[in-house]
Each structure stands twice: as C-alpha cells, then as structure tokens.
C-alpha cells in the first residue's frame, strides 16, 4: 500500500505497534531539490534537518512493534563554498543547495569544505530520543559516483544504521548468514586425525596442533578435554558452512530507468528485510521514492506500507510494483 502525502502526517494515522520493521533512506541534507513543497533536505541548517528527522522517526518508533527495528540509510554532504550549479532537479551534489549561479555559504559553525557528518548527527540524535543504536553498517560501492576532487579520496561508501525500539528485538541472523571462507571449508574437510600437525605452539605438551573447526570449549565451559567440542549446554557443537553476516556490505549501485533520481539497490535492502521482518510481516518506508522497499518486500513474501510526498514518484512506484505483482501472480520468476 502506498500513501501519498507528508511522512509525518501519514505516520500519525497508522496504528501503534502494527509494523515489523522500517527500511528507508530519507532525502539527504542539501544535496537535491525534489521540487516539492514540504520536502526534507532543504533546511537551512543541519540541526534543523536532524530535528525534522527525529520527529518523523519518533512516529516510526510508535508504529513499530516492540520487537521492531529501523534500518536507516544516510549519506553525508559538505559545507561547500563556491557557486551552485545544475538543474532544477539537482542544483548541486556536493554541498548545501542553492539556486544555480549563486554563492554557497557554509552553515554557522562550519568552514567551506567541511564534511558535515550528517549520518552520525542523526544517529546520535535518534539515540538521545530513545532508540537503541545497535550498529553502523558500511555500504561499500564498487562503482561510486566519479568526483573531480584532487584534495581527498573519492567517496565510495554510505551508512546503514540498525536501530531498535527495545533492547531485545526480532533479528533473523540465519536468514542473512554468509558462506564461510573457502579456506575454512577446506580446513573442515581435512583428514584431521591423520594430520601431523604443527609444533609451533610454545609449551604445548599434548601433541601437535591440528586443524579444527569453530567450537566452544576450554576451562570456561569444561575442564574435560574430551568435551572441548561441546557447547556450554553440553550438546555437541554443530559445524556450519555459514557465518554471521559482516558489517561491510559490498553492493553495486544500480540505475532504475523509470526514475531520474537515485534509488535503493534491491540487494542493499534485501538483508534488512530478511533479518528484520518475518514472512507475512509488514515493512514500512516513509520515504518511498521509486518503491524499491516495496519491490523487495513483495519478492520476499512480506507486506509493505510506503509513504511518498512527490506525486510523480508515487506514480512511478505504483506502476513498478503493479508490474511485479502481476508477474508474480503469473508464476514468473522475479
């Protein structure tokens, strides 16, 4: 379901504790003019932008279940000096927005060319507002936007913050687990009993060190060497060919031909939905854009609620998601 309107206004109409998780990417501060009254990102100062986002996500917290999570993607911007440029859709993509040809001035307290630090400003403000700030995930982009700067590196990452409403929350680690390294698989497939092993451990008196898989053990759990492969509960440790997902996600940016603005790559938000929302649950995106959150939710058997202020983007998202739903109902692979 897509709602057309202001995020804060629409959120206030949604029932409390009715949403499983929220996956979203608000307009970044000072980078793009979407040409819609009431849009976020055009505030004159970072502090005002952060305050507006805190108000929105306060309502998000209200509508989330007690075990709900927020997965928030944010990029940074610069307090750039010099002249503005570009088109009506994007006046500048390097710093605080101004109309084309007019000088840009740094916000109070900053110097031209300062990195603003917007993602962490927002994360800390949300933490102060009662959210549990659980993790910063790095979105590493193999194909970042080229930059002509010669006095710093090209930016090739953004943040995804995992925040929760409560200290304990729904999180399906197994759903997003990664394959173990090939070297680990090879080690587990060795004929360990017949290995000679290594003599490089100083002071080791019970034979050479041989390859072993991941395990619990040691005096913390048991003083019996024959039970070193047992868990604290006494059960045999079960080897897995997967590991817990790491916090650097390498995902290529992907253009969507139906939109002239940046969209979520589906593979960036798929882990958020798989880990944060059970099958049949509801995923919320209060800054819906072209509807990628809805697209992935449909593909993974979840429901979605999207909110979008720009009527042009609502039309794009509806057309996109209706096409996906039609193909799924026809039995086509998506």
Secondary structure elements and their pairing?
Layout: E1 2-4, H1 7-11, E2 19-24, H2 46-63, E3 64-74, E4 78-79, E5 114-115, H3 118-128, E6 132-140, E7 157-164, E8 178-179, H4 182-188, E9 242-243, E10 248-250, H5 266-276, E11 282-285, H6 292-299, E12 303-308, H7 311-329
Parallel strand pairs: 1-12, 2-3, 2-11, 6-10, 11-12
Antiparallel strand pairs: 3-7, 4-5, 6-7, 8-9
CATH architecture of the largest domain: 3-Layer(aba) Sandwich
Strand order of the largest sheet: 1-12-11-2-3-7-6-10
Helix content: 10-25%
Number of helices: 7
Q: What characteristic shape results from the CA principal axes?
A: globular
Q: What structural class do you assign from the helix and strand content?
A: alpha/beta
Name given to the CATH homologous superfamily of the largest domain: Vaccinia Virus protein VP39
Into how many domains do the coordinates divide?
Answer: 2
Q: Unreliable runs, pLDDT <50, ≥5 residues?
A: 82-96, 98-103, 214-222
Number of strands: 12
Q: Can you tell me the CATH topology of the largest domain?
A: Rossmann fold
Question: What is the mean pLDDT?
Answer: 82
Relative strand content: 15-25%
* CATH level 1 class label of the largest domain: Alpha Beta
**Which H/E pattern describes the elements?**
EHEHEEEHEEEHEEHEHEH
Task: Please give the alpha-carbon distance between the first and last residues.
Answer: 19 Å
Largest sheet: 8 strands, mixed
Radius of gyration: 24 Å
